[in-house]
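DM between two lab members

TW: hey, do you still have the Autophagy-related protein 16 domain-containing protein entry open?
JB: yeah, one sec
JB: this one, 581 aa:
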Amino acid sequence: MSTFSPTGASANSTPAGNWQGDLLVKLLVRDRREKAFTDFVESYNSLVQKLGKFAERNTALELSEKSATEKHTNLLREVDILREQGSPSNQKKTAELEQQIQALKEELADLYKTRGQNAQRLLDMNDVLRSHEEAAKKNQEEIRRLAELNQALSAKVDLHPQAIREKEVTIQLLQDENATLQLEIGKIDERMKDLERENGQLLQRWLKKMNEEAEKMNEANQFYESALEVHAKALEFQSGVVIVDKEFTPMNNVPKSITFPEAGTGTIRTRGKDFGPVIIPTAVIKKITPHDGEIHSIASSYDGSMFATGSADKTIKIFDSTTGQVKQTLSGSIQSIMHVSFNNTNEMVAGASNDNAARLWHLKTGRIRLTLTGHVGKVYSARFNGDSTKVITGSHDRTIKVWDLQKGYCIRTIFSFSSCNDVVPLDDEGTTLVSGHLDNNLRFWDVRSGKDIKELTGIHLGQITSVSVSPDGAKVLTNSRDNTLKIVDLRTYDVEQTLHSDGYKTGANWARACFSPDGRYVAAGSLDGTIFYWNIQKSKLEKTTKDHIAPICGVSWSPRGGQLFSADKDRTVCIWTGGLR
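TW: and the structure you got?
JB:
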């Protein structure tokens, strides 16, 4: 039997058997390293040796049994012969032979017993051997499976260096690309900073240009108006007719009415007119839901016979103040109506819209008379001046515009530092304005110069939602998101009173409060649908009343003194009335 040499087999084997030699070498190396089957092999060899010894001993016992049987047979034969002879010596010898026979029987019994034990042990050893052979077979199969797995894993391992090299090449390419992208990002950041700087410069230049253009426009309009005045004075000199100077008149000298002979109409009501006893309305006489969208604004006419509402459904509705019936529906707006107001003759209604425009409707025809475009942001306020020759608009684009209705274009643009939520003329000619802004500040403007007269900062902690002028023209009422109302004295620009209550919360960014017609009370709607009445002469909360269930967006006190109109975000309009005080 030849011996196997791993080195010789590896060197002299054919290519077809090379993998078997490699496998055997690896298994030998692994067995030498791990000694996985050493104990098993040693146990197996020990059992085989014991089995051989038992077989030899069994054979010897069989021979001994055979010789003992023959010896027993011979002794029996001799006993029989001695019995036949019958001599005393033979009898003695027979007795000895029987003793020997008995001893042999006992020895034979011991041999049978030992043989049986050996046979049982042989069976046990055969069982153990069989189990070891089965285990060896399973181990061989496991060795074969592990060898195949080892071969497959070796093949994979052989492929890994190539994959690692490819990955390293890919990683290097990605690192180079990442470095390139980092450089490009750095360049883009620098370019973005340059563009931002350039954009800031262009924005400043654009604002400067816009201011210059506005100043030029204002100068041209002023020159045009001066030329008209010179022409009028020339005609006056030629005809001998005296024309009243229209310079600014102080608030306390505003006349009760102004007559326009050239218009051929009667008188126009202005602030300061007496309207009789004022009623604090506490009972709802009419409750309606006229719009298809949220209501943003409500306003009474100057004679108290009508009131108007502006809605997110892009319409303005005109109501009879007595019956609550809809008299007209004014359409034409592209977006939501944010504010409505009547002119002093109750012939026109102005509506500010989210489509960056304001529109004027003529109530007799129900049609749009003018569309005022020029803002670049939502228009939140639109009001007539006292003689209805101008409209003042305030916008989210941080500008206030004055529109000449006879010329049909903007005659003054005032630039502010914050979005304008509401603007009101302080005189009938509209030469002085007051505006409330998103930055919580109240500002006063001179329309003729386009400059601010006074800016009140810090009077509110939230944006100003509405501005109202008292009937005598001496005070300004502001409503704010900080849930307070302030009354400012126009002579000193000081906050005269702060109105607040534990339950009062402003319900919207455009929520509007108002004075009573006699200027003694202030009304405002709250977030929970409650209307609050403050007595400003006594500086206290006079009364509260509630019939709305949604935040109130605005209230308007009828000039007749006996009614109040309110609207909420849930499209509900209430007409309130009460007894005489």
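TW: got it. The longest strand covers residues 367-373. The two ends are 136 Å apart (CA to CA).
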